[in-house]
Amino acid sequence: MLSREGxxxxxxxxxxxxxxxxxxxxxxxxxxxxxxxxxxxNPLSFxxxxxxxxxxxxxxxxxxxxxxxxxxxxxxEPYVDEEVVxxxxxxxxxxxxxxxxxxxxxxxxxxxxxxxxxxxxTEWMPSSILGVLGHSxxxxxxxxSSGKGNCGSDSAEPSPERxxxxxxxxxxxxxxxxxxxxxxxxxxKATDAGHAxxxxxxxxxxxxxxxxxxxQNAALKAAGRPGLVYGDFRANNAGAPKAGGLPTxxxxxxxxxxxxxxxxxxxxxxxxxxxxYAVGQPTADQQKIFDICLDCLNAGAAYLKAGVxxxxxxxxxxxxxxxxxxxxxxxHAGHGIGLGHPESPILVPESTDTLLAGDVxxxxxxxxxxxIGGIRIEHNYLITESGSEQLxxxxxxxx
Length: 399
Hints:
By secondary structure, the chain is of the alpha+beta class. It is 33% helix and 21% strand.
């Protein structure tokens, strides 16, 4: 899970991005809430899918707002100073609209916020909060891209040069703190274990769903805690070289290629890496395009470091395909991961992103050729000032 020190560090980074007259920030995206407080409604609990809000104040005070069942369904200890709880269910009365309980919790503390300038993550907020907070002291959730500017704009919509509070948080999320890296490494270790199990069992006669069950079991055993497992668990072949999504009851056959491109999600953070597994003996052409993809991966890994453009990473990854006489990579060469999938930076031909120290990114070259089959491989990397650290450690090989 995240650490108290890490949450405090992220809060300080947020305040450094907001104008100095802003005294409070109200966050509603569940990813923003866990990012700054370690609180998340456990997705595997009876309150899965519900959420709480987080109030941050510049003096360091943090308040968690929610209904009585959501707050007690935390997946880990939250680092907050107070809980503002609205009773939603008492085992005696019928329940009302659960979303209204969040607004009612806000009403409890609204008098403390009026006449004080603040910002709201409006992307995730209902319009009804405007009536609760009033316009006195409430600034629209706009700041300039540099974190400075007039947050009290009267315009109905953000002007082009301004971004919403949610966008500020998303940009902050790119540069991971040490506690986030530690959690991501647990996700990676679990995903490594699932890949190792897949290598043991993939053969003609096993179904996609059987592989999924074995991979999930191995991954969660390695994680040592409940988690979510999702991704591509699909076979392809010469006649249908590209398939994706959750597993079906399809039974693998000789010369299929099984693409295992999956994530383990723990406390909102995730891994995302891939290998292509030959079913039986691969053809010479299958091995050839696998080797090209491996050249692409190695070229990209050697090129990664803070300050390089995402566009140039894409070009570096795709160059071995061009050198071998094949078309350029037809999808992204990789992307950022963390609390989202995908998130910035995006490694594509027209990307405007630049890699930052603290980004965690994937590299995932793939080739899908009629008459041969489909290959995709992938590692995850932490970007540093001088290069990168590979976080995933599964074996990448076709056989």
